[in-house]
Design a protein that fits this description.
Shape: globular
Structural class: alpha+beta
CATH class: Alpha Beta
Strand content: 25-35%
CATH topology: Ribosomal Protein L30, Chain: A
Helix content: 25-40%
Low-confidence stretches: none
Number of strands: 3
Number of helices: 2
CATH superfamily: Ribosomal protein L30/L7
Order of helices and strands: EHEHE
Number of domains: 1
């Protein structure tokens, strides 16, 4: 069984003052507070969410 690729996504800027869609995307990634991190599977859907809020998060391979 092959290992699945993962990404560590960290919220580095507050979503306050951003559009509702961007705040919902941050919540959809599972990020709640500044500097909170989640390890997520590297899928096209997750990549698209990260691209939408690229200015609020930092993504690195986990």
């Amino acid at each position: 069984m092959a290992d699945k690729k993962t990404l560590r996504v960290t919220l580095v800027k507050s979503p306050n003052g951003t559009s509702e869609k961007h705040r919902a995307t941050v919540r959809g990634l599972g990020l709640r507070r500044l500097n909170s991190s989640r390890v997520l599977e590297d899928t096209p859907a997750v990549r698209g969410m990260i691209n939408r809020v690229y200015y609020l998060v930092r993504a690195e391979s986990a």
